Request: fold
Amino acid sequence: MYAFTYLCSMDRIYDINQLEEIAADLIKQFAAKPVWAFYAPMGAGKTTLIAAIGKQMGIQDAITSPTFALMNQYDAKGKMVYHMDWYRLENEKEAARAGMEAAFDEADMCFVEWPEKAIGLLPEGTQHFVIEILDPEHRRIFIPS
Reply:
C-alpha cells in the first residue's frame, strides 16, 4: 500500500482511502481560490474527489456527477457551491448559453470538471488541478506548470 506521498507543495499520490485527507489538504491550501478546475481522463475520480472536498466543506447532500444537468448546486454551511461538468458541452459559446459564466459570480465556490471544453470562460485566478491515473487504485494530483 502506498503512503500519502508528498512530492512537492502540490504533487500528491493518493488512493481512495486517503480521499478525506487529500480533500482537507486541498481546502487548507487553496480555499482562497473560488474556482477549481479539474483536468483528468474519464474514470480518474474527479467527481469522487469533489464529493470528498464537499463533505469536508460541510455539504450534507450526496454529491453526484452533474454530467447531464451540467451543474449541481449545494449548500456548504451557508455558502453556495456549484459543481459543474462540462463534458457534454461543445464549446465556450454553448457553455455561456447554459449560464456557466453567471454561476461563477453567484457562487461562493465552483468546481469544474472537463474545463478544457470551455477554458476561456474560467475566471482569472482559477486554480487548476490535473489528476492522473497511476494504476487502478492510485491517483496523482498536481498543479500544471
